[in-house]
Specification:
The structure is a single chain. This protein has 440 residues and is mostly helical. It has a single domain, classed as Orthogonal Bundle (Preprotein translocase SecY subunit), CATH 1.10.3370. Helix content is 68%, strand content 6%. The strands form two sheets. A three-stranded antiparallel sheet has the order 4-1-5, sandwiched between helices. A two-stranded antiparallel sheet has the order 2-3. A hairpin with a 2-residue loop joins β2 and β3.
Length: 440
């Protein structure tokens, strides 16, 4: 692998892609340290210390570490992810959008509409995020004193954070177009990796059981990585036969091949989507007057505690995995492409029967991948439950008391998925130039 990296840096165009990716990540980290005007540092510090393992930690994860400084890009790419989810749900439902997607250039138009929708989503998140952070502080303090009361300050903060969101999205798109890998995923990946050493130090220095915490962290990390790689690389092969065609004295076709259907064809996308949606109730109720319902929802989804939160998170991950798998299979039009090229699955009629068969097999093998992703996602909740049984009198919460929150199950899947995807893109570039592969 080291030799392959050396080969990658020897190629001028590939070296430029890697350097551009690194430069954009450096620019993003610089922007993550530029605070929004009027931020109260002491209140922000208290918020991060008290809620690092809850909603604040998730938003910090999705923003690539920008929330801990409440920077101009504190929204991260979350509004764009939310806008993408909305269009992913609308396209199969609205016939006009589905027809638009099938037209030449239709996907680019829907992508443009997603950018437009990300702007109001960024405004909504800016207001909701500040309100819920104030509610989580619960001490009469405010992240931005005067926000809501001072019109000029309020407008300035909203415009700044919305512009920062679009800047972060633009940087992600630059990585996708000019660099290596999926830009938005790499930005989230960089934030997770950058915060991991600090989280590990906090875990080992804040608990009374450092040896236990270290062993649990290593065990969770190793088992999760092995499981993620096995599931991500698992493939079900559907045999395909091509009919023979005779033209003149030559015979064409007759070959046998297969369709590789992955156990988890969607990677970490369901987890990113679920992480985005699970924060939505707490952000929305922050706009409503105080009351028992608001306090209950804020406690459950803001602090990320209790059976209700973890069960909702599990169901969201499983549901998004099935939904996105169906969308991917439908968009690939495998049955139509097979029929057009004279291919068929033995024992299955071409056309709709083939499409139904492929969809049925995909759903059956996706069940394993969906359940695995769901279990990985709720690992922090399971570890927290075990800690409460073993150490009932140790009242340390958040990252300081939960080894699974150093990277989180979602973070591990994102990290492993991004690394595998980036390595494959580098491998494809090297193979095109007759260099050895990364993965053997």
């Amino acid at each position: 692998m080291i030799e392959a990296l050396r080969n990658a840096f020897r190629l001028p165009d590939l070296r430029n892609k890697l350097l551009i990716t690194g430069l954009i990540l450096v620019i993003y980290q610089f922007a993550a340290h530029v605070p929004v005007i009027g931020v109260e540092r002491s209140a922000l510090r208290a918020l991060m210390e008290g809620n690092a393992g809850g909603l604040v930690g998730v938003l910090n994860l999705l923003s690539g570490g920008a929330v801990q400084n409440f920077s101009v890009i504190a929204n991260g790419v979350y509004p764009y992810i939310t806008a993408s989810i909305i269009f992913q749900l609308l396209v199969p439902i609205v016939p006009q959008l589905e027809q638009l997607q099938r037209e030449p250039g239709g996907r680019e138009k829907i992508e443009t509409y997603t950018y437009y929708l990300a702007i109001p989503m960024a405004i909504l998140q800016s207001v909701s995020q500040i309100n819920i952070f104030n509610a989580l502080l619960g001490t009469g303090q405010s992240i931005i004193p005067g926000f809501g009361a001072d019109p000029l300050l309020t407008i300035t903060v909203i415009v700044t954070m919305t512009a920062g969101t679009m800047f972060a999205i633009w940087l992600g798109q630059l990585i996708t177009e000019q660099g290596i890998g999926n830009g938005l995923s790499i930005i989230i990946f960089a934030g997770i990796v950058a915060s991991a050493p600090q989280n590990l130090v906090q875990l080992l220095t804040s608990t009374t059981q450092p040896i236990y915490s270290l062993i649990m962290f290593i065990l969770i990390t190793v088992v999760s990585i092995i499981g993620i790689v096995v599931i991500q690389e698992g493939v079900r092969r559907i045999p395909v036969q091509y009919g023979k065609r005779v033209r003149g004295r030559r015979q064409y076709g007759g070959a046998s091949t297969h369709i590789p259907l992955k156990v988890n064809p969607v990677g970490m996308i369901p987890l990113i989507f679920a992480q985005s949606i699970i924060t939505f109730p707490a952000l929305i109720v922050s706009l409503f007057p105080e009351g028992p319902l608001r306090d209950s929802i804020t406690q459950t989804f803001g602090q990320q505690q209790g059976l209700g939160y973890w069960l909702t998170f599990f169901l969201l991950v499983v549901g998004f995995t099935f939904f996105y798998s169906d969308v991917m299979v439908s968009n690939q039009n495998l049955a139509e492409n097979l029929q057009r090229n004279g291919g068929f699955i033995p024992g299955i009629r071409p056309g709709k029967r083939t499409q139904d068969y492929i969809l049925r097999v995909t759903r059956r093998i996706t069940l394993v991948g969906a359940l695995f992703l769901g279990v990985i996602a709720i690992t922090p909740g399971v570890v927290d439950f075990i800690n409460r049984l073993l150490f009932p009198y140790e009242a340390v919460s958040g990252i300081a008391g939960n080894p699974a929150l150093v990277l989180t199950g979602s973070g591990l899947i994102i990290v492993v998925g991004v690394v595998i995807d980036t390595m494959r893109q580098l491998e494809a570039q090297l193979v095109m130039r007759n260099y050895d592969r990364f993965m053997r």
